[in-house]
Specification:
three-stranded antiparallel sheet; Triger factor/SurA peptide-binding fold; 11% strand; alpha+beta; 13 helices; 8 strands; Chitinase A, domain 3
């Protein structure tokens, strides 16, 4: 007896055909209306990911540009300039960083002694000093100059060790501690290490040794002329020609007392004293004459036309005929200084003619050097203890 349930629920064949119709309907719906909701959602996610990757790429590129600009600026401002060579002597090079270091020493010393650095001239002067120091270092053996560690230590103590009062009882240990404290303060002020400072002291002692060597060749007695002068600063508002006109009717000493710039070689009245030939090379033709240039020496009582030198404008008055006299200490020192300058010029010119010396300094490097020195803040204040004439190199 057959069961009745196939008629109530439908047959198996009917269910299969129904499913097939349903699938065909879905395919038709796709063709008629597009993707299903699930596929639409997947497409939106893909597009969103693409936009995100594009944004990240643009941001990364922008960040790399910023980093590149910063790094290039750092390279141009801090890394490259100190390593640019400033000069060389026989292949031994020194850099702009070395030049800044030397100027900072002067900056620290001047602040330590109550002075300031003239940045309009110092960078050029110190570049020349670096060249001169290296030339002397290389020629020291030939000159018989040898600076030992003991001489450097003795010079350090001469400059910085405390000096007891006559008759005062002293404790050697206390004096040593004070010297070390003074030396540490000095290094802090100049921004130097001990080894760097000793190199500079060695150079200064070498210049002094050269000066002593050259001073032995200076003869005494020798011909000298007594002079007086009026010195005007280079930036003075007073014209030298106007002063010359005044001297036609006014006393030289009185005008000098009014206008003269005092110097180590002349007082407020302009009196210099007895001067040998070569002590003031700029005025040798005026005072002693020059046959090659057809210059006659001034007669006693005559006043020169305004003469220019790096120290200012001068009107020179000759007070006496030439006399053979012993050199005083002041003129002996001046002749020694001039002899050192002449030796340095001749040595430099000889190496230049052989293309064994090079120097590099332009407006851009000057700006960089002055900026680095300007932003350096000295850390020690100390008043000057005195000043006076020194041999070349002792103040540097």
């Amino acid at each position: 007896m057959p069961f009745p349930w196939p008629r109530w629920f439908g047959s198996t064949e009917t269910s299969r055909s129904t499913r097939r119709r349903s699938l065909r309907a879905q395919r038709g719906a796709r063709r008629a209306g597009g993707q299903t909701p699930t596929l639409q959602e997947d497409s939106k996610a893909v597009a969103e990911r693409r936009r995100m990757r594009t944004g990240i790429g643009i941001g990364a590129a922008f960040l790399l540009v910023i980093v590149g600009v910063v790094l290039f600026g750092y390279y141009q401002e801090f890394y490259k300039p100190p390593r640019v060579w400033a000069g060389s002597v026989n292949g031994v090079e020194f850099t702009m960083g070395d030049l800044v270091q030397r100027i900072r020493v002067l900056q620290g010393v001047n602040r330590y002694q109550g002075g300031q650095v003239n940045l309009s001239t110092v960078p050029f002067e110190y570049l020349q000093d670096l060249i001169n120091a290296e030339i002397l270092r290389q020629q020291s053996s030939a000159l018989g100059i040898e600076i030992k560690d003991e001489a450097i230590e003795q010079e350090l103590r001469r400059r910085l060790a405390p000096t007891p009062e006559p008759g005062q009882e002293t404790d050697p240990g206390q004096l040593e501690r004070e010297f070390r404290d003074n030396y540490g303060t000095y290094l802090t002020a100049t921004g130097l290490s001990d080894s760097e400072h000793r190199v500079i002291v060695e150079e200064q002692i070498s210049v002094r040794a050269l000066a002593l060597l050259l001073s032995r060749e200076i003869e005494s007695p020798q011909q000298q002329v007594e002079i007086q002068w009026i010195q005007l600063p280079l930036d003075s508002d007073i014209l030298p020609g106007d002063v010359k006109q005044r001297l036609e009717n006014e006393d030289f000493t009185r005008v000098a007392q009014e206008l003269n710039t005092t110097s180590p070689f002349a007082g407020s009245d302009g009196y210099v004293g007895w001067v040998p030939q070569g002590a003031f090379p700029d005025f040798d033709g005026i005072i002693f004459g020059n046959e090659e240039d057809g210059l006659e020496p001034l007669v006693p009582g005559a006043v020169s036309e305004p003469a220019f030198s790096e120290d200012g404008f001068f009107l020179v008055k000759v007070l006496s005929e030439p006399e053979e006299r012993e050199l005083d200490d002041r003129m002996g020192l001046k002749l020694t200084l001039e002899a050192v300058d002449a030796w340095q010029r001749d040595a430099l010119e000889a190496l230049r003619s052989q293309e064994r010396v090079r120097m590099k300094f332009n407006s851009e490097l000057y700006k960089w050097v002055t900026k680095q020195v300007f932003i350096t803040a000295p850390r020690v204040d100390r008043p000057a203890t005195g000043s006076g004439q020194t041999l070349p190199g002792l103040g540097r």
